Amino acid sequence: MKTLIHEIHRRSLWQVLGIYLAVSWVAIQVVETLTQSAGLPDWVPPGAIVLLVIGLPIVMATAFVQEGVRGKGEAPDGAGASEAGLAGPTGTAPDTRPATHERGATDASGNELPATEATAGDLSAGTGSLDRPSTRPSRFARLFTWRNAIAGGVLAFAGLGALVTSYWFMWATGVGPVGSLVAQGVIEEADVIILADFENATDDPLMGDLVTSTLRIDLVESPMITVAEPLFLEQVLQRMGRDPGEPITPAVAREIAVREGLKAVIEGEVRTAGSEFLLSATIRSADDGRSLAAFRVVAEDEGEVVEALDELSQDIRERAGESLKSIRADAPLESVTTSSLDALRKFTEAERLTEEGDEMAALTLLDDAVELDAEFAMAYRKIAVLYANTGLDPVRMIEAATKAYELGARLADRERYLAEANYHVVVTGDREAAIQAYRTVLRSHPDDQSALNNLANQYIGFDDEAALELYRRANSGPGESNTSNANLVITLLRLGRFGEAEEALVRYESRYPLDLAAQVQRYWLHFFRGEFEAADSVALDLARNPRASAQSRQAGHSNLGATDLFHGRIEAAAAHHGDAQRAAAEAGPTAEYYEAWLMPVTELMLDLDSGAGLRMLDDLGDLFEQVPPVARPYLVLGALAATAGEPERARRYLDDWEANVPVDYRSDDDEANRIVAEGLIDWRTGDPTRGLELVDQGRQDLNCNFCWLFIRALVVEDAGTPDEALAAWEEFANTIQGFYYINARGWPLAWERLCHLHAEHGEATSAAQYCSRFVDVWADADPRLQPRVRSAQQRLDALTGS
């Protein structure tokens, strides 16, 4: 052993080992970097490590052998004549046996004799030396050379490179078992695939749902496949006459896929084996059920499930046809969801409850989820969306939207940009920033339902044609939803394109037969066509529907009130709005207040000078105090108070807004509405010209072509020329508002004004048309309004010579 250790030192094997390990470490780093940047398969780094491990003994053997093969008479490196273990008893180097013939010796004929190999002594016997010079290398010396070692290493890594190249070629061309499904022509890029609910063979009743929803989060990021949204599946089940809440088993998934012309489904299973979780998935043909690709991963324990799902998702995405470089550009699934499996359970259950319509219970679970993981960005985004949909707590909505935006690094790309857009919509009001964020989503997910619908919403009021194009795009692909269908109908109605609206509404009703929001749009289509009896029939059915939500019942009662308001039946409208207010109260004080203040606004529009509208607002003071400050309509109230001739009261509302709403909760739209209110204060304090300038500036900043039109007409009539006043009232009378109830209240009032203004301008025909329209709709108005009807009738008679 002492001799062996000495030989290792003498032959510099430690240095060779150190150099080899250093070079191996660099090689591994290079391979791992290339694996990430160039998208090499996951097995390349382990393969490189295996080759390096195999190469280690070869390199060490080469060093051992080559240090012992020296030219004749060459002393060992660093070895003196008296080196321990090799010196003779007297301390001198032992004699070496000479070659049988020295080079240059001749035979009797004078011919030179060849030199022969010296005979080495037996090292173990101490009679010879390993570093005796030789003239012909041994068999091992010929095999273990540095040239052979280096060539072998190059060939090994070249073989690994050839294997990777072959793998890439097969994957890209669809050849063999690793060929991508897109290359094989089984699916096309961005094809819709249904992810069936994972079968759950564990003791955890939520594990199947958890695995399914978490896998969906990652698969949604893939540009190669489009995972069908749960809402889409529910809608197909409705059209099939089945329960929309039915589980999407593999059999149901295939049935839906065949019905909708989809090519494949993904089905899977999660089961336990001891402490391990076994997750398997199969991409299966929808037509014949054959397996197109199968995958299996193992999680060592419950805490490794998300990491295993990340691996499973990568395998599915790669086999579908997405490059590993693209896949690895996404953050790991655990970092864009949560490291807390309990928090993920809460989130999964909240999503299920949301689909079932129980948003309050879902919000409770989401609050629990963010308590378990304070950086669970997806949960914050979901909270913000639910509060925006319900209108229950604007403060919580803003806080959650802000938190999701701040935690954007913990969201997958799609989710991050959706969170950014939502933040700008509900917090900053920066429309351009929201538009850019939605467009970023659509560049990688062109059929994304949320991005298409919400981007269209941003164009409403200033580029309606762009909004229509986006809604139609949303409704012609996998991004379709009941919301995008409803918004398409709403936009067509607002543009007065009633024939197209009818066609879109029929399609909406046929595809979403259980969606009661379609009845709201049906009411307004009848209303704008003047079919008031049919409109009231739809609204009454909605108000009395036993399965309708509080929000739907509220809409039904409000719509009945709108019909009455349009016809001047104020008392009947107040009764309907009272019913609507009681339904709204189920959603909280904010929803209740916004329903309750519609009648004071009506009174204010009917008679600016009576003060009745403002007194009714005062009566809502207790309810107003229950509304969170950031949700209180201070700015609109300020504008209304100024319009009613009370600029000091208007100023108090604006001051309250400044005092009670933090700067971080003020949007660009808030600032624009504040400018409008300031303009109305100037108007009522004696400077109508300046007031009109500010009103127009605020409307421009809002980018809204229908906002504040009624009040603007009042200001123009006071501050502008008669021609400008006529134009302002004509614009309002021929514009359908984004908030239809303004039309129900304001159109008869505009016709009344235009009756008088055209008459004063000597335009008898136009005046008669507006007088007749006003008299007709208010023929059965409340007694207190009849003097105005009689006045219009008298003017009409004078104009027509009746």
How is the topology of this model organized?
Elements: H1 2-10, H2 13-38, H3 44-66, H4 139-143, H5 146-173, H6 181-184, E1 191-195, E2 199-201, H7 207-219, E3 225-227, H8 230-239, H9 250-260, E4 264-273, E5 276-285, E6 291-299, H10 305-320, H11 324-329, H12 333-336, H13 341-355, H14 359-372, H15 377-390, H16 394-406, H17 413-428, H18 431-444, H19 449-459, H20 464-474, H21 482-494, H22 498-511, H23 517-528, H24 532-543, H25 550-566, H26 570-584, H27 589-596, H28 598-606, H29 612-619, H30 621-626, H31 634-643, H32 647-660, H33 668-684, H34 688-702, H35 709-719, H36 722-733, H37 740-760, H38 764-777, H39 786-800
- Unreliable segments of 5+ consecutive residues: 69-134
**Biggest pleated sheet:** 6 strands, mixed
Q: How far is it from the N-terminal to the C-terminal residue, by CA? A: 132 Å
Q: Class by helix and strand content?
A: mainly alpha
Number of strands: 6
Proportion of β residues? under 5%
What would the average pLDDT be, to the nearest integer? 85
Number of helices: 39
Query: Shape, please?
Result: elongated
The oligomeric state is: single chain
Radius of gyration: 41 Å
Helical amount: 55-70%
What does this structure look like?
The protein is mostly helical. The chain is built from 39 helices and 6 strands. Strands 1, 2, 3, 4, 5 and 6 form a 6-stranded mixed beta sheet that branches. Strand 4 and strand 5 (about 275-285) form a beta hairpin. The protein is elongated.
